[in-house]
Amino acid sequence: MSLRKTLLSTLAIGVTAFAVNAVNPAFAKVEGDTIILGSAISFTGKYSTNGIHAKNGYNLAVKRVNEMGGVKVGGKAYKLQIIYYDDESTPARTAQLLERLIKQDEVKFMLGPYSSATTTAAAPITEKYKIPMIEAEGAARSLFTKGYRYLFAVLSTAEQYLASSVALAAEIGAKSGKKPGDIKVAMAFENDPFSLDVRAGVLEDIEKHGLKTVIDDKLPRDLSDMAATLTKVRALKPDLLLVSGHSKGAATAARQIKEMKIDTPLVAMTHCESSKIVNKYGGSVDGFLCPTQWSETLTNSDQYFGSAGDFDKTFKATYEGYEKSVPYQSAQAAAAVLVWKEAFERAQSFDTEKVRDAISATDMKTFYGNIKFSKAGNNIAKPMFLRQIQNGDYHVVAPTEFAVKPIEYPRKAK
Predict the structure, then answer these.
(1) Which of 23, 121, 260, 393 is most solvent-facing, going by the fewest CB within 10 Å?
(2) β-bridge pairing 34-41 and 30-31
(3) CA distances from 271 to 53, 224, 236, 245, 251 (A)
(4) pTM attached to this predicted model
């Protein structure tokens, strides 16, 4: 989708978007019967795919909240509205735009950007101005070690993303009679805060289970080629290949695994759904393991969207291009808006400190999962899940209590 179409689509549901260079009037935190939220998010650049997924989730939740009577504070009903700026997938630009939203547009309530890198740039700005930010797309655990009081995240942190696949490789190896030290792991990660945290979680689990690391590569900066890593994979024949490079890295990995006919029995990578690898590469990605924050098969539900499955249907009916699956980036973005709605109503105020305290006290059930914040601001009430692509569909295979199908091993690409 072009940036122009993206901005027009936001206008169509009553969520205001402004081009970066437009001359805008100043916005207060609440104007008339409208609560203004702000977000600097990626509509262009390497994070644009997921930036648009997140924007769609934000917009759908705003639409639903407004349709259900809005936010009720002090006996009055208010609508939600979002001002967006495109941060071009550049952390420095994110920081600049947060300054603009706060100082020029006078926005007092923020939704996060897309990615840990841009959230890392945004958090010091919102902290400096004591502006609460509920974010849905920055999973780096380093975000929650700095003592921020105004940053809250609805998602599980990054070190949990691929760690379960290491435990799975150990379990499968043990069943086939392999010693832990004979189970070989290959890794290729982007050099960004999110992927480095994913790697840290993987390394902890590799050490815990006693597996052997044979490849530990960094993906190239532009995420466009991992042939050098895959050449080593072909030679060393690892039992498990792990990849983390956001949507562009996932698409590159899926394409080149197909082109180079890599037959590693277990392949696990982040951002499978958001990069639409099933649509792009068909049966060649069957068997891939994909960590997810959310699945439509979960039993979670709420008063806004109904069940996880209901949200899935609503999202697919609202937006084109999501026939195979709804990315968890969209689901968690929608959940962030619901937290704002309930925090305003519990605070019964638009004072930023009172609202901040209401967010901190959040303990709610949503279609996306339970949300409860630690003192550090991360969500401590939900696990990560592992889905496997089987015949072109995504099925939860771990943790076992949430599995809807058994894992297919070894991977059998078509």
Answers:
(1) 23
(2) antiparallel
(3) 12, 15, 25, 8, 9
(4) 0.87
The backbone torsions φ and ψ at residue 72, rounded to the nearest 5 degrees and listed phi first, read -105, 115
Residues 200-209 have a mean pLDDT of: 96
Asked whether 21 and 93 are in contact (CB, 8 A), the reply is no
Residue 389 to residue 320: CA distance in whole angstroms: 21
Distance CA 80, CA 70 (A): 7
Confidence band (pLDDT; 50, 70, 90) for 8? Answer: very low
Within 13 A of 127's CA, how many CA atoms are on the CB side?
Answer: 15
What architecture (CATH level 2) is domain 159-295+385-402? 3-Layer(aba) Sandwich (3.40)
Using the Cα atoms of residue 28, residue 29, residue 30 and residue 35 in order, give the sign of their dihedral. positive
94 pLDDT higher than 60:
yes
Confidence of residue 28 (pLDDT cuts 50, 70, 90): low
Instruction: Kindly state which CATH superfamily the domain 3-157+297-372 is placed in.
Output: Response regulator (3.40.50.2300)
CA-based nearest residue to 399, from 242, 241, 292? 292
Interhelix angle 246-259/48-67, nearest 10 degrees: 130
- Assess contact for 149 and 132: CB atoms under 8 A: no
106 Cβ neighbours under 8 A, 6+ residues apart: 26, 27, 28, 29
Burial class of 268 by CB neighbour count within 10 A (0 to 12, 13 to 18, 19+): buried
**pLDDT of 6 above 70:** no
Q: For 285-317, write each residue's pLDDT tens digit.
A: 999 999 999 999 999 999 999 999 999 999 999
Tell me if residue 116 falls in helix, strand or coil.
Answer: helix
What 3 state SS string does 290-358 have? EEECCCCCCCCEECCCEEHHHHHHHHHHHCCCCCCCCCHHHHHHHHHHHHHHHHHHHHCCCCHHHHHHH
Q: Give the domain ranges of the chain.
A: 3-157+297-372, 159-295+385-402
